[in-house]
Amino acid sequence: MSTPLDIATALASLMTTRAFSPTPTTLAAVLLPALDVAAESGLVISVVPVGITSETANATRAMDRDEIEIHVGIQKKLVGEVGAELTEVNTLLGLVGDVKKFLSRLSPLANVQWKSTEVSPLWLPEHLQKRVFTSVLRVNYVTYTAAGG
């Protein structure tokens, strides 16, 4: 059975093989995304295992079905002048779109199937007020394991 941490680690590893633009200075699976981005100057992508939901409605007698939620956080301190954030935010939204497209339909491990990707809100307003762009992609995967095992 693939654990949420296994999935997040595999996802981060696959993402490092992709040439994203702008290029992240840090891209890793983490347990706590408590990074102080305001002190950083680079682009940080954090892949965080968040939760497991077990479903019996779509399971079978022989198989258990779990949904695994992974968050992919994209963060960067805005370095442009106050009032000129629009260009920088627009570039980062392009990256969010590229990451979303990359993650869609990607199966990070053999027994893991992509289910959905959501980006809402596009950025966190409370972070933007502190001149830090933060966007969180919520990615859901489905795993099947032998019932009772």
Report on the architecture of this protein:
This protein is an alpha+beta fold and 149 residues long. It has a single domain, classed as STM4215-like. It has 3 helices and 5 strands; from the N terminus they run H-E-E-E-H-E-H-E. The protein has a 5-stranded mixed beta sheet with strand order 1-2-3-5-4. Strand 2 (43-55) and strand 3 form a beta hairpin. The protein is elongated, with a radius of gyration of 17 Å. It starts with a helix and ends with a strand. 23% of the residues are buried. The mean pLDDT is 88.
List keywords for this structure.
3 helices, 149 residues, five-stranded mixed sheet, STM4215-like
Lateral strand order in the biggest sheet: 1-2-3-5-4
Q: Please tell me the total number of domains.
A: 1
The CATH class name reads Alpha Beta
Radius of gyration using CA atoms only: 17 Å
**Content of β-strand:** 35-45%
Characterize the overall form: elongated
How large is the count of helical segments?
3
Contiguous runs where pLDDT drops below 50 for at least 5 residues: none
Helical fraction: 10-25%
Overall pLDDT: 88
Q: What's the end-to-end separation, in Å?
A: 9 Å
Structural class: alpha+beta
- Give the CATH architecture: 2-Layer Sandwich
Largest sheet: 5 strands, mixed
Strands, count: 5
Named CATH topology:
STM4215-like
Order of helices and strands: HEEEHEHE
